[in-house]
Amino acid sequence: MARQLIECVPNFSEGRDMNIIRQITGEIEKIEGIKLLDIDPGKATNRTVVTFVGEPEPVIEAAFRAIQKAAELIDMQHHQGEHPRFGATDVCPLVPIANISMEETTILAHRLGKRVGNELSIPVYYYEHAAKEDKRKNLASVRAGEYEGIAKKIKDPAWIPDEGPAVFNSKSGNIAIGARDFLVAYNANLNTTSVRRANSIAFDIRENGRIKREGNPISGKIIKDKNGQPLRIPGVCKGVKAIGWYIEEYGIAQVSMNITNISITPVHEAFDACVESAHKRGMRVTGSELVGLIPKKAMLDAGRYFLGKQQRSCGVSEEELIHIAVKSMGLDELTPFDPKKKIIEYMLDDAGNSPLISMNLRTFSNETASESPAPGGGSISAYVGALGVSLATMVANLSSHKRGWDERWEEFSNWACRGQQLKDELLQLVDKDTMVFNAIMQAFQLPKSNEAEKRLRKEAIDAATIEAIKVPFRVMQLSIRSFEIIRAMAETGNPNSVSDAGVGALCARTAVLGAHLNIMINAQGMEKDTFVADTIQKAQQLADRAVKEEAAILEIVKTKIS
What we know:
The chain is of the alpha+beta class.
């Protein structure tokens, strides 16, 4: 069964005393199987956002221990900060990351809430998907009145806690435990110190908008519906909650946003909405700030968006896309932005899984030339395939930016994007091929002293061999797909780079034929297996096609050169 992963993002009402923060996060790090991804303290907000990830059981245990330690160390009677809050552990959301549903995550949130209420005597409110009634789904409603209003609110029959005693816990306050989609906490920096003006931008962009008034939008009479409820003018960004505040630490006002669904409102759209609103009101957005982590896709989408606005090719490396996103949104204005510490996939990456593509060219060549049998022809075929499609991508990018071809930038950008995708997949297979080879070697080392051990050993060898056939076959499939891009660049790309397209074709053919050789040698003795026999037949067809594709492209290249 695939590994289930959930993320937990507790917010603790302490952002200034690092000793307290370290003790709380220390409880999280004690739990085996937990990866602590981020600790983001804020002095002005007096709040720390912690992000960790793991399988469900370790995450629930780590969350409970952190909440317990926060209740021990933080006294809400003395807490002051810019951010809305009502408890020592103010909120503790669980977020499904991989191979787990929202329904399963909600069950886990309820388990955690029961334990917190019963064992720590802290009033618990469920919110978002974990809420047991609609009015509690919105965190702002649950937290309304903040810590100072708990004593009165907790006596209201409509606001009895979901778990724990309906009694004001003066030291720890309340806690909101939820199950939610991935949320991005994101702040836009303004060239003003005015909270009122920052709020005006927040009202423009947030989904909930602003209250509708007669005449003056600030002091005019509130317009109500037939039920006596205030009418609202919705903001432009769905799934966005926002307020304005002043951050003394930086000496600026910010629009503080929670983007609850980045597939509906991406970060770059929220940023541009703030830019537009600020400009109308005589202000500027000078940069922005990411609190916690962000999915890689959100940063790549932002990079493509801003390159598209410049009419430049989006078919660049993910590193370049992220760099463009950071600079376009000014994410490094207040503090350095390190993608390896702010992008969730990079934090989860195990560098040990891709040692080959992490090497420089000389080290990779030395490793290939060493007495070790891996990396071998399979890894080299994948790498040559990556180089071939990289050359075609280069031609596409040069063509996109060629003087006089401005109206064709998007055409070539699309080709370059396709090339980048193939390149990245082929690079992953460089290490994958070596991994499956090593798996075969390990299977051969299994004991074979009796019939049972011999049977298990053979099953392990066969399973590893199947994988060792699948990987080079995938290299063949991807490299064949690269011929379409290479041919297009030879035919319609920048004529000054036609020879580069030709070299790309030579590389793609080598990748296909090299991977084919690996399939044939790995398949020895397994030809009667239905999957293997079918793969051998398909691989031969791809090999024949590669020879024809290369010849056709080289003919185009030679004609253009001559």
